[in-house]
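Lab notebook page, bench 4
Experiment: in silico fold of construct C2
Operator: M.H.
Input chain length: 191 residues
Purpose: comparison with the prior construct
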Amino acid sequence: MNDLQKAIEVISQGGIVVFPTDTAYGIGCRMDNEKAIKKLFKIKKRPENQAAPVLFDSYSRIDEYVLPYEPRVKHLMKKYWPGALTVITVCIESKVPLLVRGGGKTLGVRIPNHEIPMELIRSAGSPILAPSANFHGEKTPYIFKELDKALLKLVDFVIEGETKGSLSSTVVDCSKNPWEIVRQGAILLDV
């Protein structure tokens, strides 16, 4: 069994996996497993009121979790996805665990441009949480040697590989009017 197959098995069974993405290294779990989500937040020391970004493999899967959005949001997604843009939009609260949305009504969604997270999502059959693989407030890891060894000891599996970036994703909040850039990252946006 190769590392990707092992990671798929671990994440499918509710484990926590560290993996490369098109931006940085992410730490992930299934979005439909509240026990795994709580474990991920605990490992990262992430505040419970801080929503976690979620990676998806298709627009149709995103549509299962969010309320309909205006055509210009779809245009923004199509222009930059797959890629390093996280779009915050209003979610269907009953389908998104409270912790994932930080107690709010929105969800940060992204389709990554990297085969490893895409395969994890497809094979697990669930969107996956994917905040950066670091302790809350610490430096974001873009290469394997930047990963904190103390964090790696707390997760269930680690896939070593290449990220495609040296910047985090750009985050734009499309649940507000006008839109608000929450974090300027790999994609330069002017909203």
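Observations: The mean pLDDT is 96. Strands lie at 17-20, 25-30, 54-55, 85-90, 106-110, 128-129, 157-158, 170-173, 180-183.
Next step: discuss at group meeting.
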